[in-house]
Amino acid sequence: MDKLKERDPELPPFASSWKTLYAIVLAELLLLIILFYYLTESLS
Amino acid sequence: MNWIDWIVLGSALAFIVIYGMWKSRGSKDMNSYHLASQSMPWYAVGLSIMATQASAITFLSAPGQAFTDGMRFVQFYFGLPLAMIVLSVTFVPIFHRLKIFTAYEYLEGRFDLKTRSLTALLFLTQRGLAAGLTIYAPSIILSSLLGWNIYLTNVIIGGLVVLYTVSGGSKAVSYTQLGQMSIIFVGMLLAGYMVVHLLPENIGFTDAVKVAGKMGKMNILDTSFDLNNKYNMWTGLLGGFFLALSYFGTDQSQVGRYLAAKSVGQSRLGLLFNGMVKIPMQFFILLIGALLFTFHLLMAPPIFFNKVETDKLKRSEYADQFSTLEERHAELSASQKVKTLDLVNAMKVEDESNVNSLSAELLQGEKVRQDIREQSRKMMKANDPLSDTNDTNYIFLSFVLNYLPHGLIGLLIAVIFSASMSSTSSELNALSSTTVVDIYKRSFKKTGTEESYLRASKNITVIWGVYAIGVAMFASQLGSLIEAVNVLGSLFYGTILGIFLAGFYFKRIQGGRIFYAALISEAVVISCYAFDVMAFLWLNVLGCFLTIGIALLLGNTKEKF
Question: Which of A3, A29, A35 to mutate to test the interface with B (most CBs of B within 10 A)?
């Protein structure tokens, strides 16, 4: 597994690191769930 | 459809096919034919991944599903962004580093040839049948609503796909998908705009959403935990995560898409783009269905949206009974319209007691409508036991054909064609890659030239294309087998994911152990499905954990296998 791990020097163009980009994806998911909760509660 | 629609449809399809063939000219070796010379930028990879997943049924069925069952289906996709992150961290760098053509190649290096061959054959069996159904599903709906010949529709959709997929391979697939996704986005945005635009003058978007909410269609989030409920937040997050990880990580029709990227980083960006856009896109498509529900409270819907079935009833001995039902339904629709307008007015003046009583009356009216629909279904079955009594997939297209202006109808039919062709092309390209790389080149002709493998790849793409069109031709005779074929892939996904995760994360698991663990796990998963032990999405989780767990339990028995 370790041998297979890619030491990828390529940085993402839209963030300082891949971890930041993963955090943005997770934050969007969290925001969407909160928005859906609000919509479900307020419109039902 | 009139001549304007035919021009729009014909131009859209011609543009896509010619553009794809032009951009992919000069595929001269296996790398360019199966991996697009690993030259694709992230946005093309992202759109290609989305286009592969979204078949015509996605756009036909999702609005109908929101119309009948509300928007809770969106939760099904909650696990997808999480899966995109895991794929970016683990799968993508490993696949790129090994410079493989297919995901199954990895398994021979990590385990053994029989594990690689087993997973490749499982993929070919399931995906070959699925490619046929990807063509058949929109064909049956278009032929029913437009009176087209279903066999000709199958041949046109399948033939166009074979034409550019054989000619340009993976690059043609990716570039045509760019055009197809553009048409899909524009078409669906215009359809959404038109639903609101066609509402009575004093009713706007917010009013329509509020009415849909009062009718229980805005049930987007369900936080309760229930193993047997397939659409709640937890099933979506956990079951959806494992399903997405299996599909995007181990199904060659998806792996082939991001292996065509320029670099590891471009593959990752494509996957993360999919992770960010998929849920909002699905939400929007479902919202069209919820808005259509409000629209049909104000504009009388037919009792049943599949006109072929109602026409059959009108020509049968049940014609008089059905006519009586239609009269009852028309009276009900008129009464529902008045109540809906009153409800909107009550909402505007914030008259809560009136809002509550009118909502209750409207819900009661919808129960009566469901009763009328159920009676008509019973008549259909009594008249013809083989009749299709599920009209969910017909709701959106029925709106398109009956209410949208000419030109836009042609564009929306182009959306259906594009969605079907984009999924089928990825499937054919992946079927060809797997057959040539994992079976033909590995086990039958190990010392061929690059030209001979390229020629074989093109020939095998044609064979799979003809096979898929053949499955589409006979699909109408498969009956309930269609559902079984659709379920088939998902029954194997969890186990196959278990094999890959064991390879990536469990050094201790070696050689043949994983092969036998997978066979045992699969037997358990199929038994659980047969006895309806849990909701469908959880089978992916079960298959994955069982495969890894059994392989670990079998101990270090590499020599015995």
Answer: A29
